[in-house]
Amino acid sequence: MTLHRIHQLPPVLPVMGVIALLALPIGPGGEGGAGPADALSALVVLYCAIRLVRDRRRPLSRTAAVLLGLPVIGLAVAAMGASSPGAGLTGMGRYLQIFVLVPAAVLLLIRDRGDFRLLAWSFVGLALWQGALGVHQYATGTGASYQGEEIRAVGTFGAQDVMGMATVVSFGLVCAVGLALGRTAVRERAVAAACALALLLPLALSFSRGAWIATAVTCMVQLVLAGMRRALKVGAVVAAAAVVLVGGFGVGTAMLQERISSITQVTDAPDQSVTDRYTMWASAVGMWREHPLAGVGLKGFPEHRDTHASLALSAGSDTEGAGTAYRKQPLLSPHNMYLLILAEQGLIGLLALAGSWLALLVCGLRGLFRVQREGPGLDCALVACGLLVWQLTDFAYADIGGPSTVLTAVCFGLVAWWALAGGVDEAVAERPALEPAAEKVAAR
Description:
Blueprint: H1 2-8, H2 13-21, H3 36-55, H4 62-69, H5 71-80, H6 85-109, H7 113-140, E1 144-146, E2 149-152, H8 162-180, H9 186-205, H10 209-226, H11 228-248, H12 253-262, H13 272-290, H14 301-308, E3 317-321, E4 324-329, H15 337-372, H16 378-394, H17 405-422, H18 425-429, H19 436-443
Antiparallel strand pairs: 1-2, 3-4
Helix pairs in contact: 2-3, 2-7, 3-6, 5-6, 5-15, 6-17, 7-8, 7-9, 8-9, 8-10, 8-16, 10-11, 10-16, 13-14, 13-15, 15-16, 15-17, 16-17
């Protein structure tokens, strides 16, 4: 009986464990490289492989194998062009983990929309936890340093990964919005809407411009896809909440306004972080021009950066606060995923990776339109498409790196399941049964 109950447990529980591990504090010096969640994600891949062998199941459909395996082409070419075999293998392993192996494992472990919603709510739960810690850091002055004050909300990720909490909260907010716009029980939708509103505050206090832009774009896309009438209603509620938070309580009004206005300061006195970012973007483009097809090789950006960067690039970014001492953090990536791929993998790698992502987006939207007017699953569609839109938008301002990167792999797994299985098979399976006469016609 006990063994039978174990078999009834959702197979996505190990994936939930990966998400739960990101709620733990990051140890000193553990801001870079692999962490406990990355180690567990490797065990999830192994667990999935064992289940496939035991159940004698076909691993992936032909379409799924092509879309998820497409990035391997560019990675193999770029790994051979790396400065050393170690760098090539390390870089290829990281890319395979984030964009191929873990997404494929998540795709295979999700059985139905119930498992999908379980993972989506796990994202929301993690975001609420990290967001609550971030708000506490802002209120007590124990966050990361920002403009001389230790008020930046970073959660458990520390000052060395200021984007960590912003990414987690953004994922949770996107999932909550998708769940709230679905056709599930009223109580579940109300709880999801309340969670989405609650996550607005920690997202604002993260002072992350890239996360703000990506989240705003994604939520608008989700609202439009859910219907214009609902979009207008929800937009009015969000605007009212923003007025109350910022106007009524004065939540970081001056600093938030200054941070928001800095987004448009591209040529008129941009701050040093903006200058560094555009300088590194230019450096990545310079690398690509010298090696247009295959790039400079995996892990090659730091080595070639200074050769192509101008004197405007600073030595690094200053990090301090949230329990860590002052440190000059080196700038080892262009903070733009597309340019990083272009610089290190060339056109071959960019077309392979971006082609895979765009194909998943097309398949996901096709599944969304299929359930938009009929049948359940709209919430899953909005969550999956929202996560992919957020990630593709954020990649214009950030790249992979840090402990929160493993969540990107889980997100791509959710997207892949909806695009390649959930939006197709279950939409057909959950339709009402045909009448006997219709069955005969369909069988002919």
